[in-house]
Records
---
Amino acid sequence: CGEQPLQGRKIIVTAGGTIEPLDPVRYLGNHSTGKMGYAIAAEAAKLGAEVLLVSGPSNLADPAGVKTVRIQTALEMQAAVQAAYAKADAVIMSAAVADYRPKTVAKDKIKKSDDELVLHLERNPDILYGLGQQKDKQILVGFAAETCNVEEYAKKKLSKKNLDFIVANDVSAKDAGFAVDNNRVQIYFRNGECEKYPLMSKQELAGIILNKIVEMM
Ligand code: C5P
């Protein structure tokens, strides 16, 4: 079974994208598959942690030894994370949370017409920002998927969301990021340090992220 440095620790991991319904048959969504978060949850369980995985819709199977809760919307993800936050030792937010949701959800299927269709969207809460505001002993880890200015945006999010570290990647790269098994990241820490990693499997990256958390504990 190997070493279990996270024995007795409670870790919340979020994964996948949230989906925001428009009507009974349509939704707004994104390309996240959940691979990164599921790899982190599985690895954390192997290291002995009690893991709650809060996942948006994903084709991946529930990881062994992990309590998996499946949700659809950002508001549902927020409620599931909040319910477990007070007792958590660490939260790793790898989910691609929708920043906006349709202001109204049509009761019946929206019918097409010859006119333009205008959708009104309202802001979803920033779940991680909220956790950062209430932070007590929890180690908070965020992800920043960017298509440009990775360093600048990642550092801003680290500070604004009161995180311990943020894992940043350029999702415009074809060989890493969304929907593939590999990732190439930089990790930015509170003290201003940055570590750059080469292309590696999401499983290997999960191990690196969890080792950082073990060191901080
Ligand atoms: O979307 P953004 O780049 O700000 O995401 C950075 C981090 O914040 C990620 O870890 C993501 O899971 C989290 N986030 C969140 N709630 C949102 C948007 C992002 O918790 N509404």
---
Amino acid sequence: MSQDVSNHPVPEAFAKQANLTPEKYAEMYEASIKDPDGFWAEHGKRIEWMKPFTQVKDVSWDKDDLHVRWFADGTLNVTESCLDRQLETRGAKPAIIWEGDEPDDSHTLTYRQLYHAVCRFSNVLKEMGVKKGDRVTLYMPMIPEASMAMLACARIGAIHSVVFGGFSPEALAGRIVDCQSEFVITADEGVRGGRKVPLKENTDRACDLAKGMVKKVLVVERTGVGVEMKDGRDVWLHEVGAEVDDTCAPEPMNAEDPLFILYTSGSTGKPKGVLHTCGGYLVWASMTHEYVFDLKEDDVFWCSADVGWVTGHTYIVYGPLANGATSLMFEGVPTYPSPSRFWEVCDKHGVTIFYTAPTAIRALMREGDGPVKATDRSTLRLLGTVGEPINPEAWEWYFRTVGDSRCPIVDTWWQTETGGTMIVPLPGTTKMKSGAGSHPFFGVVPKLVDAEGEVLEGATQGNLIITGSWPGQMRTVYGDHERFVDTYFSAYPGNYFTGDGCRRDEDGFYWITGRVDDVINVSGHRMGTAEVESALVSHDAVAEAAVVGYPHDIKGQGIYAYVTTVQGVEPSDELKDLLQKHVRSEIGPIACPDLIQFAPGLPKTRSGKIMRRILRKIAEDSYDSLGDTSTLAEPEVVDELIDGRQNKA
Ligand code: WT7
């Protein structure tokens, strides 16, 4: 066999207490495929409805009439599931455990406290003039107010659009304008790894760039640093919040009314506003959260993602709260003040389920076993990963060193578009192979296809498609339904194309191999190469740019940029610095190229198309297998590129 595959049985002690068994999984999976309507009619009831649905699935993936609707005649408000219904039996249970950037800074909010805080927050939004259907942009640090802001929007029927706090003012402005958001919620500053992030200042700049679009800015006090408040536009949460009621009636929403927009990178330049709606999304978030994580009443669940990504939406806020779970929220970074921090937090709060990204595992693995072994971790019973394929070495280290070979690992494959987990070794139901996404969740039918759309059977490799809808599926690209149809349903008509490549082994396990489009995955974050290219080209010194990914030890993929300068501008190290700074300010630090190579020209076909295949090979330092270059307009540029490559072994 080509790959060293470790097979791990389910640890015995875990299997004994698992919610699922292999038989139960098989039975439920079969039911979900044979009779989706019956299956989801039952599981749709797991959330709170104001008016119960009678319709279940109403979906067409036909290009000419593409629509996705679930539970379409039901009425609900998602915050009733997340808050109101928890009060009776879980009012005093911790809903959010917040761990600040500094180890001595933490506090807990019970379900009752969170409920009242969200109601207050909702009333503040109303005071500001936010109405049902309005878009509200959140640009927040990892503090409980971020979750409250999301829930408050949901409570009054406004649509939240969370923009990751690491994005630049330019990127924030672009997302504000795209969804015509007149309201922004931010904080004075964020704090991460001992450093301050000037969120309010960035917001001011974004508001300027958005040219009058933003009418009101709500500011949460995090550090108390003095920030400028613009008269008539800016308000403090603690000031208005003190004057409003701590109850607020939930707005009745149709199941298919929008809940949130979340921007994500695609193959083309502009990020897409992925739209999720109320009913189906919450069913999917809560159901996957319960089954993927083998949830029990006393669990302390920690998802280390940022609320700026879909992982934070589904597994810090909506999934755990809809299930009445205790969700830990961490403001800081894995290595501050020391590389033991993650595990110290686990000990401090008795974390039982821990969910993080392969990039964090690799970074911590590099620090050796010491920082892990200095901690206890005995409360942990289940570990999870998400965001990119996990290499077997990192998987084994996570399993043995972090989990003491006691905790199963759930490697969860999903996307912003899917709302929640799609492919996963559900704990207790399957042996584990280090690095395999393994098996479909209930209701999910994956298939592998070749470039022509031919379905491939048995042990094979191909492009990953999903053949039918699931409740958590995105509904459209905000304001651009056409783009939704084109992006996901045109490559393999009648099916959802994931953009990922995938292998299926002899045992039927799925192994995600990574993106097959022009999207790269940097530390588990999606980055469109076209987005970075247009940021580079917007600099005066740049005539042309081509961006590709290359293997990176910690980040999974690094960003490699080929840049051609305009006439009269000489390449230099200073210019590299300038260009890196420029991309940071156009998009944010996560988009900053790791390596820049100045190129006299780029390899193009005679019709002018850049041959990325060749650029990828050179960036990977594997240029002896460049394949056919005879169709190039100027084959000599290839030798020059090879000579000047930046990633020499
Ligand atoms: C892309 C989606 C889902 C939340 C975080 C990322 C890659 C995600 C895995 C995994 C292999 C994975 C895929 C996917 N990906 N999880 N467990 N194994 N690859 O969400 O930013 O929408 O990115 O991340 O390539 O398409 P996203």
